[in-house]
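=== Given protein ===
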Amino acid sequence: MTQHRHHDAPEDRRATDPRTPSARDLDVLSRQLGRPVRDVVEIGARCVCGNPLVATTAPRLSNGIPFPTTYYLAHPVITAAVSRLEADGVMTAMSDRLTRDPDLADRYRAAHLAYLAARDAVGERAGTGPVPEIDGVSAGGMPTRVKCLHVLVGHSLAAGPGVNPLGDEAISAIAPWWTPDRCSCDGAWDTTGQAPHADLSRHTRTQGLSPEELEAKRAARRRGAAGATTTPPPRGDAMRTAAIDCGTNSIRLLIADIQDDVLTDVVRLMRVVRLGEGVDATGRLSEAALARTFAATEEYAALIAQHGNPPVRFVATSASRDAENRQDFVDGIRARLGVEPEVVSGDEEARLSFDGAVSVLATDAHETVLVIDLGGGSTEFVAGTTEGLVGALSTDMGCVRFTERFLRDDPPSEEQITAMEAEVRRLIDQAAARVPLDRVTKIVGVAGSITTVTAHALDLPAYEAERIHGAELPIPAISGAASDLLHRPRAERAALPYMHPGRVDVIGAGALIWRTILERVAVLTDGRVATAITSEHDILDGIALSVARQGS
């Protein structure tokens, strides 16, 4: 067994039930998931060092919602390894075997029954009692198919070998990246600063504040929770709006006061939920990904109510647009937020991205600006002037989609990089047929991959939104930073002070896409575009502006 010491490892060996989560366990889980952890009643499985591997959730959440996914795989190294299996089509092969192998089908059905029994026992220990809404419904596709390997692996780790045959198979298959007998916690998640919780997220307006300022913010939040349930209305003629952008990798909230197309933030939050995890391979949103997204939506609904229930627009992009079970997503969001989520077209997504990105730029009628919005499942190319758009195209390349499709090693091999780069170039050429890339005079990049590359190019001591926003850097400097991120191993990427834990696994693909686009635009414009601007304002700001413009 590997001897290991880790910042988050428990310092004591409990004489009590090892399933009981300590405050340290909850802190580690929040860091592993990159979001505040909620409704965890037990630790389903632990690393050899003591850190949590699996979070056990009661069958009914504290807000009353039934929750069938009892065992939630939390450790980033295992989660990424299982995602590789899903991207390789393992779930389809397993589902096929269930139709051809009666013995395997019987053992998988027994795993389903064991899961139901374990969930009932968890509910009894947690005091939630029976949950008739999910009677007979387990998770992960059991008992007849495989929909989410993460659920099956979580079940196997919690129940032990011999209970879930396909979960056991998946654990064996990820042995090149993780095995139960050794610790893989070093560098797997961010161990610096505050753990994510309801009033502190790495990519919010708390970034860069002193400890005293952070405590003042938290105290103000506590006072608000104890007193009035709403905040004061916006001043003057400003209109308050709420915007939610649900992408492939993250879901973000902006509550803003808007006057004359100028936005003043009231709340800006991001939660990494990986809604599109495995969609490229399976064509479906997994139960675990939907659960993460719905939990974040519930949090946002409470904040919107606290700030006066302004008009809301919820925009969903690539992952939910492509998924076979997108109606499950739509129904779940409507039930929690009270508004119909808009699964927007690529053209609408591009227009919103452009409006948000250029909302703070000084441009004139002679400039043609190219906005690149690099998401988890798609990348938007949008060109326009102060008078309107002149070309737009949404392409099916993004940091999550291309990580799963191409970059499977740590760090990726040169063959993998070459194959991905060829596909990126093909899609850029496709975009050039619809968008006048050769005529642009400025290029603006938005979204997390691009802001992270910029932070790396600036060698920031932390994620400092104020320094990233509006930063204009030479293309060779950005390309160098992107190449460095692409070739670094995961542990080194995770240790960077500005790296969000939820972006560690996908930043290499994002960096390669951004680098290739910039170098191609520089060539197409004969060197006229020699720099790129990074904007913290993107589709989220465009969504908020669209609500205000409709209401004015």
